[in-house]
Amino acid sequence: MISDGDPYLAGHGDDTFDVEHYDLGLDYKVASNHLAGRATLRCRALHEAERFALDLHGLRVSKVTIDGVAPRKYRHSAGKLLLQPHSRLVPGAGFTVTVTYSGHPTTVPGPHGGAGWEELTDGAIVAGQPDGAPSWFPCNDRPSNKATYRFDVAAPAGYRVIANGALTDRRPMSSRVLWSYEQREPMSTYLATLQVGRYRSTALPGSPVPMTAEAPARLTDEVLAALSRQPEMMRTFVDLFGPYPFGAYTVVVTDDDLEIPVESQTLSTFGRNHMRTDWAGQRLIAHELAHQWFGNSLTTARWQDIWLHEGFACYSEWLWSEASGGRAAGRHASEHWRRLESSPQDLVLADPSRPLMFDDRVYKRGALLLHALRVTIGDTRFFTLLRQWVAAHRHGSVTTAQFIERFTEGAGPDRDEVSSLFRAWLLEPQLPPLPRSSR
C-alpha cells in the first residue's frame, strides 16, 4: 500500500519519501497547448518500502529511471505513477527519479473545482492550490514536502515565461527562447507555478524588496495605478511580520478575467478584472502579498490547518487598512463578526473538513481569532510573538499545535485567558464573543 500524503487530498502524496529537489526541463507550444517534459527528482526515503508513487495527471509517461536504471516495474493510472525499484527503499537513503512525459495539460478535477494548468486566450497559467501541481509535473503532492526547484522552459519567441524564484538565464534558440529560473528556498508543490504570456515587465519603485509587474502592454497604466501602493504594503508587512522571506516579488496580470487571484511562492497572479484602486481591489493585493509570509514561507504541514494561511492573509488586509489610513482592524473585525454570527455554526476552525477548507468562514474566523488574540495580549506582545513565529519557522512547515504553544507560552500573565481563547475559536463550532477593542 502507498501511504496517503494528506487526508484532505485523498489520493495525493506519499509519506514514504521526500523530494528534496525538482529539476524540470519543459518545452511548451502555446498554439497547441502541448507540453513535453523531463523531470529529475532528487529524493530521500523516510520509511522502508518496496514501492512508492508520484502524482501526475493527464499526461503520458514515455520513460522512467531510478538512479539511471529502469525500475523493476512501473504503472501510470488514475493520476498515480506507481514505481517499484529493484531494491527496497531504506530510510535515510537518497535516490533520483527521472520521468519523461508529454501531452496536453489541463486542470486536475477536485471537490473545489479544477486546479493547476489553465490554458488562456493567448498563453497559460498554473494555479496549483490545493492539488493542481500534478497537472504539469510528476511530484510528491503533499504540502509538508517542501523542496528546491530549477525550471528550464522553452516557449515561442514573443512570449514571456515566468516561474518561481530568480531568473538565471534567457537564451534565444531560433524561433524559441529558453527561460531558466531557480527557486532556492524550499517550496511546496502546490505553490510551484508557470506563467506564459505576452507580458511586459515593469519595475515598481519605492519598495524595500525588488518588485515587478508582468502584464500585457495595453494594461500597463491601469496595472501601475492599481499596484501604486504595493511598495507601501511591502514596507508595512516587513515592519509587522519581519523581513520579506524571498529575494523579490512579482505580480502577473493576465489578459483574461480570472475568478480569484492566486498566490505562488515569490509571485501572485491576478486577472485584469482585479486591477482596481478601490478597497475591493486593494484588499486582494494586500492579501496575496501577505501569503508570501503566511502560506509560502510558513506552509501548513497539513491542509486541515489552512487557517494558518488564510486567516493571516485576511487579517493582513485589515492591518493594511489600518496602517494606510483606512478603517481600523477592529472595525473590520466587528463587521465580519456580525456577519458570521448569522451564519451556520458548524465549522471547526482547526479542522474545517475537506469540503469546507476554502469556506469564507475559515478566512474570516481565522482573522477574527488573530484580532481577539491581539486585543487580549496587547499590540506589543502580539506583534513581537508574531515576528518570532515567522522567524522560527521561516521556509518550514507549521501546525496549529505549534502556533498555540508559541502564543500561549508567550502570553505571560494572560496565559490562561489565551488558552481559553484558543479552545473557543479553534476547537468549538459556536462563534465566541469578540473582545472589545479600542482600535
Automatic annotation (TrEMBL):
Zn(2+) binds at residues 287, 291, 310. It comes from the Bacteria. Its EC number is 3.4.11.2. Binds 1 zinc ion per subunit. Keywords: Aminopeptidase, Cytoplasm, Hydrolase, Metal-binding, Metalloprotease, Protease, Zinc. InterPro entries: Aminopeptidase_N-like_N, Aminopeptidase_N-like_N_sf, M1_LTA4H, Peptidase_M1, Peptidase_M1_dom, Peptidase_M4/M1_CTD_sf. Residues 20-191 form the Aminopeptidase N-like N-terminal domain. It catalyses: Release of an N-terminal amino acid, Xaa-|-Yaa- from a peptide, amide or arylamide. Xaa is preferably Ala, but may be most amino acids including Pro (slow action). When a terminal hydrophobic residue is followed by a prolyl residue, the two may be released as an intact Xaa-Pro dipeptide. The active site is at residues 288, 363. Its main location: cytoplasm. It is found in: Cytoplasm. One of its GO terms (cellular component) is cytoplasm. Residues 229-425 form the Peptidase M1 membrane alanine aminopeptidase domain. Belongs to the peptidase M1 family. This is Aminopeptidase N.
